[in-house]
DNA sequence: ACGCTTTCTTCCTAGTGTGAAAAAAATGAG
DNA sequence: CTCATTTTTTTCACACTAGGAAGAAAGCGT
């Protein structure tokens, strides 16, 4: 439990900042609230809250919304957190294209743009962000960049498709250029964060999101934060040794994902029902299973494999909630029930399986939560 | 990421307390240090440090140790953290017996006692602790109780052997009786915490400790803290579905641990080398493998199974470091190398396998770190 | 002995949160 | 309509804290 406290824990200014932050955070949580509420939530005295609120209103963080709740006594002056006071940029690098969105702290997208990814990634990102925020630059609190498969130490692992060799320099470079905090992370991690703050996992502090696409990856949230592991490889569940005892060496793509990701399933579906490769192989398989016995059988196989995957994760980290994302979210209700049954039968702790609900928006919401928490660095209290 | 801030984040007194704590923590880390060091570490000014140190010396937390480091200028007055100023009690409930140790914050055991576990657990624990601390009661900062297999919500899972039905009430009851914070946790979790602060994982913030005994359990430390999962079942790796596709239902003991824990190995070792069941089956197996081909073969099997276990964990959480504890720590160097090779060949991220170093002391050190951090509740900053 | 350097201490000041009191803003009874 | 009542918001003086500056202390080298 290595703790270092190189910087001041409680200097004068720091303390003041902490106070401000606690008010801002409280306000961000509750949509509308009065000074009294604020005082209760933060534990500060009414006098202090008054002073702070005046300051924050002047700065545009809070807006006065007139009296509310007609009750006996002086009515409370309602305050509202101004979501536009804090903007974040969410940049998503997907193999051939880049998408950039500017959102306020509630997730409302203010501006967005998609384009082909040019040669110089850093240049493109900065240009996009600056262009999209425009005059609101002072409100920009942070930038989150989603990359397919990046590890903390900088090596890009599962992303041979992206043309960038070094991922870490991106974060630093952009940070230097834009002057706001930048975080770079795996897209699946961002999805997990997104579902946790604004999606199917908004009510829990632990979850595991399994994203099935060309590969299979997972994002892990424990105790309210995304956990990346020692070298950022947490959630590389595609490499789980579940398919018997194949003694293959590490080769960039995992045994498990080689057999049970979308590509493999699509092939099999085409074999079962010749024709063009379907847009959504899993949905197609669910459909076929209703009438075709072989399809039914194969679906059972897939569910069995995925159940094994979920079970493995549940035994190691006990997430309590498992969210299915990507192709796995295409399962119909019957299949989902079956999967839940398979899992429940063998887990040592209760584990619920749900579909992720945010879809493409998951990365955006994750990026927002990242950027906001990066913008508001918790004081490094030991 | 559910955050609630019901209590005061930065009231006046709280701020002062935080300051004090940061000094205490800094002092606890560095064994000997001067006021200047302290000022640098905490970021406080020299004036503030002087005042605080005077206070802490008066209270017995710090001791003055005369001048040190003869250098140009006035020599620094060295201070030393007084480990005796903070005592903790580590109670370990093992099936037929209870062991209780009083230790200072450095892990030095001041008093200890072992006895058979009587009928009333709470009574016994309180009596033991009170008796052992004696006059030092005011210095007692916390109590940590290690139970074989307890989950956060109170249900005892893997501990049919212990005669206690409810584990949670223990914590609360003892806390009420002794008036100090009490934490109750799985013994394997405590071992992991212990190895992380004072053992083989002292230099890292992420690790997984695998303890092989009658069952197989793991303790997970991510980002410097023990992670228990949603219902305290993280680390139940005995239930991993690695042994092919046995479709057994949940039955209190996992498929994997049924095949690869000490009991199973001991049986096989007896079969290979008839006689009494050896004290340390794994060590015995390592020995036999040097001369007997069947033993060699079986050892390979065991290592393969354990490698699969480690691999599964590595793929899910990427601990970076895996510590072997219990019977698994009895592997000789050759076997350990072999295991490391098996693991490295297939993990997506570098994963080192070591032996745990603290042995029986691991639980104690874990309990100390628990008790100390429970005694010093971090301010609930959102 | 005399500077010199570094550490520790003392004193004063600026700045902060809080409690109490005052002001403000509505309601409802007479 | 007026006035007591209730609740929220604001103001103000106070107690307290951290930090800066200056001074005292304690050794070292010449």
UniProtKB/TrEMBL annotation, chains A, B:
Transmembrane segments: none annotated. Coiled coil: none annotated. InterPro entries: ATPase_NBD, ROK, WH-like_DNA-bd_sf, WH_DNA-bd_sf. Pfam families: HTH_24, ROK. It comes from the Bacteria. Belongs to the ROK (NagC/XylR) family. This is Transcriptional regulator. It comes from Micromonospora chalcea. The lineage of its organism: Bacteria, Bacillati, Actinomycetota, Actinomycetes, Micromonosporales.
């Amino acid at each position: 439990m290595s703790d270092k406290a190189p910087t001041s824990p409680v200097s004068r200014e720091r303390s003041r900042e902490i106070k401000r932050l606690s008010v801002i955070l409280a306000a961000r949580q509750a949509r509308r609230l009065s000074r009294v509420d604020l005082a209760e939530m933060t534990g500060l005295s009414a006098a202090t809250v008054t002073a702070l609120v005046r300051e924050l209103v002047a700065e545009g963080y809070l807006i006065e919304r007139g009296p509310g709740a007609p009750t006996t006594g002086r009515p409370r002056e309602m305050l509202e957190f101004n979501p536009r006071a804090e903007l974040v940029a969410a940049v998503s690098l997907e193999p051939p294209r880049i998408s950039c969105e500017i959102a306020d702290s509630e997730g409302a997208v203010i501006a967005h743009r998609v384009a082909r990814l040019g040669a110089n990634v850093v240049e493109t990102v900065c240009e996009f962000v600056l262009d999209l925020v425009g005059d609101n630059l002072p409100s920009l609190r942070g930038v989150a960049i989603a990359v397919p498969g990046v590890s903390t130490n900088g090596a890009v692992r599962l992303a041979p498709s992206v043309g960038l060799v070094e991922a870490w320099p991106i974060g630093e470079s952009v940070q230097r250029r834009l002057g706001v905090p930048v975080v770079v992370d795996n897209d699946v991690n961002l999805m997990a964060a997104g579902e946790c703050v604004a999606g199917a996992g908004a009510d829990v502090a632990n979850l595991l999101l399994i994203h099935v696409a060309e590969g299979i990856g997972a994002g892990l949230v424990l105790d309210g934060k995304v956990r990346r592991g020692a070298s950022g490889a947490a959630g590389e569940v595609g490499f789980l040794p579940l398919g018997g005892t194949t003694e293959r060496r590490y080769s960039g793509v995992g045994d498990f994902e080689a057999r049970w990701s979308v590509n493999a399933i699509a092939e099999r579906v085409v074999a079962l029902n010749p024709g063009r490769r379907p847009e959504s192989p899993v949905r197609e398989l669910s459909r076929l299973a209703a009438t075709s016995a072989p399809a039914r059988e194969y679906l059972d196989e897939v569910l069995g494999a995925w159940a094994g995957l979920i079970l493995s994760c549940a035994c190691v980290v006990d997430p309590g909630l498992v969210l299915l994302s990507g192709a796995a979210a295409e399962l119909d209700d019957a299949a989902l029930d079956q999967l839940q049954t398979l899992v429940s039968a063998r887990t040592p702790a209760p584990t619920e399986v749900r579909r992720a609900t945010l879809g493409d928006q998951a990365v955006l919401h994750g990026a927002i939560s990242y950027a906001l928490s990066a913008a508001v660095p918790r004081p490094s209290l030991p």
